[in-house]
Amino acid sequence: MPSRIAVLASGRGSNMQAIIDHFDNLARERVAKVVLVASNKADSPALIRAATSSIDIAHFNSADDGSELLSLLETFHIDLVVLAGYLKRIPPKVTRAYSGRMLNIHPALLPDFGGEGMYGLRVHEAVIASGARETGVTVHLVSDEYDRGPIVAQWRLAVNASDTPESLAARVLNVEHTVYPRVVEMVAILNQLEATRTD
Ligand code: GRF
Predict the structure, then answer these.
(1) Which residue, by CA, sits nearest to atom 14 of ligand 1?
(2) What are the contacts of 92-98 at 24+ separation with CB within 8 A?
(3) pLDDT of residue 54
């Protein structure tokens, strides 16, 4: 049975869409499928975008200790949680319950250029200001600290002398759309193998 994925997204949802499309294209070969898109922002463009598909959507209160999010994930029997432009810290109650089963993507090479407040164009501005010759994409497991869980995959790309934060953001985002769905798929496979070993 395909693993059940919940995507948490507060922003425009382009990674969410890439992941949905990836598993839809695999059709019967897919090891996982997105069954829920949830956000702490009821007017999140990602939520609005997902509402046009047959995927369930939900809004949750992120101001508590994680109880509301955890109960939502349990109600939908979620196996794997994928953060895609979700800006809030995930409370320990949830990271513990989904240890090894919750992923995030960051538009730079962590551990550099990450942490609280490092999102959107700020990341690419900082990369250019530092004079770094390379940037990239990092997929990591989520811990209760911003951008600090174990790294699962990275993809590097060059920073060109002519790059602006906007041009870099566009190139990095393009790579994210290729890398993230494939890493999510790999982690879903590993989790399924682990589950059959411990059955
Ligand atoms: C991406 O750049 C991702 O790395 C970061 O937030 C952005 C989300 O973009 N965590 P989108 O909402 O998927 O278009």
Answers:
(1) 14
(2) 92/66, 92/144, 93/65, 93/66, 93/67, 94/66, 94/69, 94/70, 95/142, 95/143, 95/144, 97/70, 97/73, 98/73, 98/142
(3) 83
Residue of 106, 124, 140, 177 marked active site:
106
The whole-angstrom separation of Cα 141 and Cα 147 is: 9
Q: Check: CB of residue 58 under 8 Å from CB of residue 22.
A: no
Q: What is the count of structural domains for the chain?
A: 1
Supply the range of the domain harboring residue 109: 3-198
Residue 173 in contact with ligand 1 by CB distance below 6 A: yes
Mean pLDDT of 27-46: 92
CATH of the domain at 97: 3.40.50.170
Q: Which of 187, 148, 184 is nearest to 16 (CA)?
A: 184
Annotation says 177 is catalytic: no
**CA within 13 Å, CB half, 193:** 6
User: Per residue in 118-166, pLDDT tens?
Assistant: 999 999 999 999 999 999 999 999 998 888 999 999 999 999 999 999 9
Q: In what order do the strands lie in the sheet with 134-141?
A: 56-59, 32-39, 3-8, 80-83, 102-106, 134-141, 151-158
Residue 11, pLDDT score? 93
pLDDT at 197: 84
44 lines ligand 1 (CB under 6 A): no
